[in-house]
Write a structure and sequence with these properties.
The complex is a heterodimer. Chain A is an all-alpha fold. Chain A is built from three helices and no strands. Classes of the chains: A mainly alpha, B mainly alpha.
Chain lengths: ~110, ~280
Amino acid sequence: MNIFITLLLICGLIFFTGGTLGILRFPDFYSRLHPAGKLDTFGLVTTVGALALYIAFVQGLFLTALKIGLIIVFVFITSPTATHAIVDAGVRAGLKPWTKPSSGEDQT
Amino acid sequence: MRIVGLILVVILGSVLFYGSLAFPPWGDPASPASSHLSPYYIEKAMEDTSVPNLVTAVLADYRGYDTMFETIVIFAAGIACIVLLRTFKETESGSRLYRHIPTGITLKIDKKGRFPEDSVVFERIDSHWVPHDLIVKTTCRLIVPFIQIFALYVIAHGHHSPGGGFQGGVILGAAMIIYAIAFNLRSAIRRMSERSAVMLSSLGVFIYAGTGALCMLFGLNYLDYSALAGLLGVDPVTARSHGILIVEIGVGIAVMAVIVTLYYNLASAGRHDEGL
């Protein structure tokens, strides 16, 4: 069980590292929100899921694990909605998505 | 006038600073608070009030006066916000926007025209922010009941875990604000009007102060909940525990209503017609 939990945690950490790199490296608002949304949902599900498994099967506190499970469920519902709302606000505010500058034009 | 206010503030501030010099040093183990008060709370709170959470016992029972006036401060903040921001003048611009829901077409109707009622066919929309977002609305619909249940849990479970009236009231108010943001200010006001918000905030303060007065009627000190033992049909220790719950409910109602009032006034600059 411990090995499985550690694997889940490592998997979540890889997601978090990749997502952080993505937020730093991607070129514009919309593409940066893409890894940010991934982080909050999948990274959190793996790490907090590992926590819930640890508490349920190593420490034996099933009720606490259930509460952590509820946190996962609600974050899974609300976090993508928040990302969607931010993107929607960007579109409404008139922010143009980034496009790759074509080689013919001069890059000002 | 401004200079007079400044002088008053400076004088009051220096008096407060001068008064604070007389306090014992912070964290002094020999100060009366550390040598008499805290050990008493830590040793006796459970047998006095049968509340395992020490913070709740101190907050709502031993220092009930303090918390009552905190609630009154919050109530006063809500009233001050209404007094400062609320405008009753009709400043609405001449036209309104309506969405024809089946086709999604937006209509602009001048004041001379006839405004349609809100129905399944026409929906009034804000002029500067036009949310027609099914995802956000559906998630809001889904999540608000759970937020409210959690708020009630926080209020009711303040005896055993972190929480209580203030925290639960803020969460309840936040649920209402989420509703107002995901839909619009008008539908939130339709759910909870300004009048009922103000009434609820004064009702919360009334529950708190009324519990204290009830204790006096039964012949004990103000806010000494053990006087309610006969009324609740339990022994005096359990009555103190139940009394804490009653005043926490009052605090929760007051805080929730004040938060909603603040949002209504701040979001619409006191006009209550179109929100954020």
